[in-house]
Design a protein that fits this description.
With 465 residues, this protein is α/β, with parallel strands linked by helices. It has 16 helices and 18 strands. An eight-stranded mixed sheet has the order 6-5-13-14-15-12-17-16, with helices on one face. Strands 1, 2, 8, 9, 10, 11 and 18 form a seven-stranded mixed sheet that branches. It starts with 7 loop residues before the first strand and ends in a 16-residue tail after the last helix.
Length: 465
């Protein structure tokens, strides 16, 4: 495209966010709350609402949301529901079950449809700052800023209308696990975790369409071999979420999917989901949920993650990853949305300081002191914690990656272990007794939920120092 072409339009913004998912919207809102104007660019013609799922917002998510905007977690709860308990059910080969229950205080854990959470966040953002039908195709970064090139399409015909060149001080890639921004600055691709999901977020008032869970309940069903897992969740406002997850060590199951990245309402998805339960006893509730669901509501997908990386920014510190683009993790522990909210909360605090600074390189500094991170990641955990404690992270604009990357590497690796794939479980973990594994899991939950006080580690724990 030649400079000055009538097919090219230009605009200048302070911060450009790529991706209108939960992370991008949360960051745009957090910055708006702090007086910083960030423009958000989404490739779809409207804010996407076809994930057919719901999210769980635990203690760290609740604190992050309230840090983004006071009272935001309560608004999420009102749009969804609070969870009172998690019921874990183990099914053995004979179809016999064992129960264990974890209870929550009201407001401690929120369940809400992904679409509803997206709409809540978007409702607070100046509509002039949200630009749909903008697909990022490339960007050029320098120490002075970034030129981001977007294809702008007609919302009715999807035909290309023009190229928009956005000049910005900082480009934030919040464009999900298949991030264009990450592919450009890192060059890798998501990893298949040998699991396939079917899920649906469906109207189920009073659990009359299908049962399996009570009001404010989350029910997790899994077999002793780790081959099959299911969730039945009260997502509030008369909606339920069901999930069926199947182990696919050979990769043959993934090959039967009609779309490699998955999608909503794919023909045959319902039959493929039910086929996974053929001959299994003790799974009547999830079978009933699938049978009662119209296929157009069912989302089918292979489960992927992104490998942990030690850097989320480009060489000029003017392009930055966050959310799934930076640290997509196995969905089992349920931390995807919560850690995206953590990212938005922390980055907005640091960028507020950067925009208040008179230093020319304050934004780049807010992104990262790369030499510090590379040095610390090469040292022992003890040394890292000792050095970190000498600094006050919220008094500097240099801490986003220092604060987030060590935490997310630990969480990504632990999430990958939760798949139970032998190649992803460290040898020392596999040698732990069941009691030690349970202690480690509890300590992980306590550490994660202690956000933001113990961001990097829990020095009082055994396994998460």
């Amino acid at each position: 495209m030649e400079e000055g072409s009538s097919f090219q339009r230009r605009e200048e913004v302070e911060i450009a966010i790529v991706g209108g998912g939960l992370g991008g919207l949360a960051l745009a809102l957090a910055l708006q709350e702090r007086g910083i104007t960030a423009h958000l660019y989404e490739k779809h013609h409207d804010l996407r609402s076809d994930t057919a799922t719901a999210i769980g917002i635990g203690a760290n998510g609740v604190k992050s949301l309230n840090g983004i905007r006071s009272g935001l977690s309560k608004v999420m709860e009102d749009a969804g529901t609070y969870a009172s308990c998690l019921k874990l059910t183990l099914v053995n080969k004979k179809g016999e079950v064992r129960y264990r229950e974890q209870t929550f205080e009201q407001g401690e854990y929120v369940s809400i449809g992904w679409k509803q959470a997206q709409l809540v966040l978007a409702s607070y953002i100046n509509k002039d700052l949200i630009h749909c039908s903008h697909r990022l195709v490339r960007f050029e970064s320098s120490e002075a800023g970034v030129d981001a090139y977007f294809e702008v399409t007609d919302e009715n015909t999807s035909s290309l209308e023009y190229i928009k060149v956005v000049r910005t001080k900082l480009l934030v890639g919040a464009d999900g696990i298949w991030s264009v921004v990450r592919r450009t600055i890192v060059g890798d691709s998501p990893r298949y975790l040998h699991l396939v999901d079917w899920n649906a977020y469906v109207p189920n008032p009073g659990a009359k369409v299908f049962g399996g869970h009570g009001e404010h309940e989350i029910v997790l069903l899994f077999d002793e071999d780790g081959e099959t897992r299911s969730w039945l969740v009260d997502a509030g406002k008369g909606f339920s979420l069901w999930i069926l997850r199947k182990l696919d060590l050979s990769g043959d199951l993934a090959k039967t999917l009609k779309r490699s990245k998955g999608g909503l309402g794919i023909p045959g998805a319902k039959a493929r989901a039910l086929q996974q339960l053929d001959g299994l006893d003790g799974w009547d509730d999830i079978k009933a949920a699938i049978k009662a669901t119209d296929e157009t509501y069912i989302f089918e997908r292979p489960i992927m993650d992104n490998l942990p990386i030690k850097r989320w920014s480009d060489s000029h510190r003017r392009v930055l990853l966050m959310g799934d683009a930076a640290h997509a993790q196995y969905v089992g522990p349920g931390q995807g949305a919560r850690t995206a909210f953590e990212d938005a909360h922390q980055l907005s605090i640091l960028l507020k300081e950067a925009f208040s600074s008179s230093e020319d390189n304050s934004i780049a500094t807010a992104v990262k002191k790369v030499n510090f991170m590379e040095e610390m990641l090469s040292t022992s955990r003890h040394t890292f914690v000792k050095v970190y404690q000498c600094f006050s992270p919220l008094s500097s604009t240099s801490w986003f990656e220092e604060l987030r990357i060590p935490r997310m590497i630990k969480m990504q690796e632990y999430a990958a272990e939760s798949t139970a794939l032998p190649a992803l479980v460290p040898e020392w973990v596999s040698k732990l007794t069941m009691e030690e594994k349970q202690k480690r899991a509890l300590e992980c939950q306590q550490w994660v939920h202690s956000y933001p006080e113990k961001m990097l580690c829990d020095p009082d724990s055994t396994y998460w120092k």
